[in-house]
Amino acid sequence: xxxxxxxxxxxxxxxxxxxxxxxxxxxxxxxxxQQLQKEMDLSGGSMSFSAQYAGPCTLAENGIENVLDFVGxxxxxxxxxxxxLFVLDAGIKLLETHRPEILYLSLTDFIQHxxxxxxxxxxxxYRDLDARFGRLAELGAIVALTADHGMxxxxxxxxxxxxxxxxxxxxxxxxxxxxxxxxPITDAFVGHHGALGGFVRVYCHxxxxxxxxxxxxxxxxGIAKAWSAESAARExxxxxxxxxxxxVMGDAKTVIGSRAxxxxxxxxxxxxxxxxxxxxxxxxxxxxSEPLNGQYAERGAAGGLRSRELFDFALNGVA
Length: 319
What we know:
With 319 residues, the protein is an alpha/beta fold. 33% of the residues lie in helices and 16% in strands.
């Protein structure tokens, strides 16, 4: 989703703002800012802005203006570590000066897409993150860290991306127009991933059935799993009315695209393809800077936590 109109409810931050809590929500990309800000009340001192459009922020739209001057940094480039570091630096500055009660900081995964763990650029980025997390804790914040996904290398030994162009296969076997393959990872910033991830949805047309697609994909090397709509909704905890007829997932080393002509891999600029989307990237950090009370410590020890539970743990679970 690229905007708030398809959201069925408000974000946690928006809901808190509507009950008088001073919330600051800062994102790297503006499309997420718009979604998190749906129906947010900025009249009580809450703020919501993105690093992508920090320069043109207004009081009416964002609850803050002159952000670049406030942070003391230039507009960061979208394809840089600076985009994420700007988010954190802006959050630190606001915590120092405005003391919001809830501070939500969302970064971008450009570095993780471009540099494997242990690479010098990746190591420096995490040192920079760690210093800023430490500063947030020094300022008295309960710091809770998670991610929306992990990341895996999806290229062969020669650096060529391991891609299944599923729309081309289905067009060949069922005919053009019989199906539509949707890549959920697609967004405007294809330099991150070439619009390629480990998961796609397939919609069937003109009387074609999910069973036909499931039979075709089951024979494809690199496909780890495929589901009917009902099975996908149940296992992946998704709303059934928004599922495609078939959901398809690649294995740990393989991504799935639409048609080959739809993906401009030159945007990777020679880098190995590192991306996400499958269940092989489902494990994420769940870190809180303070000890938990007994009830929440037991819940954590039991395992099976979801990243969405981090709000509950940070707000209610600290000893």
